Amino acid sequence: MDLKGIFHESEWTNMRKTAVIMLVFQIMTVVSGCQKPNSEEQDLRHVKSIQDDNSPKVILLMADSLMASAIDEGIRQKQLPTFQFLIEHGQYYKDVVSSFPTMSVTVDSSLLTGKYADVHGVPGLIWYSSDKKRIINYGTGPMEVFRQDVDTVLTDALINLNGSHLNRKIPTIYEDLAHIGLKSGSINGLVYRGKNDHVLSIPEWIQVPTTLKRDIQVKGPDFLAFGALSNPLDGKVNLAQGLTNRMGMNNDFSVKSAKYLIQANKLPDFLFVYLPDLDRKLHQKGPSNLDGVKKLDGQVNNLLQSFGSPEQALKEVIFVILGDSGMTQLLPADQNPVIDLPVMFEGVNILRPGETATDQTEIVLAVNETMGYVYKLKPNRSLQNLADTLSRDERIDFIAWQEKNWIHVIQGGTAKRFKYKEKGNMIDCYKQSWTIEQDSGVLDLKVNADDGRLEYGAYPDALQRLASALHSHQGDFMVVTAKPGYELADSSSPTHKGGGGHGSIRQTESLVPLIITGTNRKPEYLRMVDLKSYLLKLLTQ
Questions:
Q1: I need a labelling partner for 525 at 20 to 30 A (CA). Which of 11, 143, 304, 331 fits?
Q2: ∠ CA(201), CA(207), CA(208), 5° rounding?
Q3: CA distance 173 to 196
Q4: Which residues of 393-407 are buried (b: 16+ CB within 10 A; e: fewer)?
Q5: Could you tell me what percent of the chain has a pLDDT over 70?
Q6: CA distance 280 to 28
């Protein structure tokens, strides 16, 4: 049936635009793609591990915004039997340090490359390219996507993120595994670059006038399932993949796809499974809500039962369950939780979404929820002056920028100052060395000058993570973060009043849980950026 004939032309156009916006909105929380039949057959034909049955296989479940506090409370209430079983039969860590900003696309890039953003090159969900003179947006929210231009966002999300923004000189775990002859797969992963050819296709019923080709050539692991429209299991498994099911970017799609590979005896050596649903629930209801983690518990149990029983699952596969970031509880609307950055820079020419910077543009804003980048484009403006403007607002946590070799940090509301640079006589717990001056309390550092040691408090691995964000891309810019309870906003940024937010560098948003079963090998460091090397050791040693 031709659906277009049922509707008025304007109604049909609006429906298609809405569909595209929904599609792009989920790039972080969504991406669209579709395998052609021959690609589907190729995925299933080549995904199965060629190692013997005694060789280790790893399934990594990345649960967006999974927090240790929710796991612990759910177990205390006897509501999470699956998590309790896994913890009792494995290793449980509550304090793995995520990357910064704590946005999924940057976190996944760090996990899969083993590098922070200064090396892997994906600074956040939204950032400004000084080369292109425009904002790069992988899909922050419907209004921002609409103003930015749907075609541009789709291009950045579907082509540029994995194709050029992610540093081509740094191999992903999929590329490393292919190099040594091991098989890998990704189900709904946002970052998936590998060595195998795949085709993503945008369906005709969603298309609006666009420069994008309907079929997009990409590189991925041996098995690539990327939303409902990049489904190698089409016709084999009944998956939730319509518009009402977020185009297949949901836990049900991910779990059923993984179950098929298990039951069909087609597991690769390494399988990454992204579970996005919890993040959406916590954005709406806040991090204390347990509904999402209870549902996740049942879905993980469903996956374990694919082996016959949870006990058998742990005998056959190493399971790694990981959160990507935490969440901060945001204040309700009547307590002014949104820090409106354009208002703070009133009278300044700010780049609008969808526009290209001109000689008149003075600053650019790129807001990643509770963290943001502020770029200066005019030489007569100083980052110091911009930072002073922001620091007057007590809802600002801190502002940081680099001058020469020093990174400067100003605390919001107090104007206390701190600066540091790489290499020096102070050593942190990750064996990184630093030179520090002024008030170390700005970043809650515990300094022991006698033995040259420093410890992190409220901002885990703050010196390296902040430095990595400030070195993640070209331009004159600074990092600004909001205090707990608040989030930043540009003119069309999505907000989550009374719900949950992430992006910043504080503990609540930075520390994530890690559960490992099926091996006694322990990670050397509890940081997201160090887990790639750990996973490779599990698979090769």
A1: 304
A2: 145
A3: 13
A4: bebbbbbbbbeeeeb
A5: 87
A6: 11
Q: Is 346 helix (H, G, I), strand (E, B) or coil?
A: coil
Q: Which of 44, 174, 167, 57 is nearest to 117 (CA)?
A: 167
Least Cα distance to 86 among 95, 73, 75, 98 occurs for 75
How far is residue 111's CA from residue 536's CA, in Å, rounded to a whole number? 12
Which helix (DSSP H) or strand (DSSP E) does residue 229 occupy? none
Mean pLDDT, the chain, whole residue set: 89
Q: Are 194 and 213 in contact (CB under 8 A)?
A: no
Tokens 């299991």: give the residue: 233
pLDDT the model gives residue 234 = 80
3-state secondary structure of 275: strand
Which pair of tokens denotes residue 16? 């298609």
Q: How far apart are CA 286 and CA 452, in angstroms?
A: 40
In angstroms, rounded to a whole number, what is the distance separating the alpha carbons of residues 280 and 251? 11
- At 189 the pLDDT is 94
Give residue 203's pLDDT: 62
User: CA-CA distance, 116 to 122, in Å (whole number)?
Assistant: 9
pLDDT band at 209 (very low <50, low <70, confident <90, very high): low
Q: Can you say whether residue 83 is alpha, beta or left, with left for phi > 0 and alpha for psi between -120 and 50 degrees?
A: alpha
- How many H-runs (helices) and E-runs (strands) does the chain carry? 18, 24
Tokens 């999924």 locate to 104
Q: How far apart are CA 202 and CA 229, in angstroms?
A: 8
Residue 201 has pLDDT above 60, yes or no: yes
The 3-state secondary structure of 2-19, one letter per residue: CHHHHCCHHHHHHHHHHH
CA angle 112–113–118, rounded 5-degree value: 130
Return phi, psi of residue 47, to 5°. Answer: -80, -30
> 5 in helix, strand or coil?
helix
**Is the pLDDT confidence value at 17 over 50?**
no
Cα–Cα distances (Å) from 21 to 175, 177, 249, in that order, read 32, 35, 14
Q: How far apart are CA 74 and CA 83, in angstroms?
A: 9
pLDDT at residue number 10: 33
- Bridge-partner residues for 185, per DSSP? 223, 271
Rg (CA), the chain: 23
Residues 130/376, Cβ–Cβ less than 8 Å: no
Residue type, 92: Y
280 three-class SS: helix
Query: Can you tell me the distance from the alpha carbon of 61 to that of 304, in angstroms, rounded to the nearest whole number?
Result: 12
Cα gap 204→253, rounded to integer Å: 22
DSSP string, 402-420: EETTEEEEEETTT--EEEE
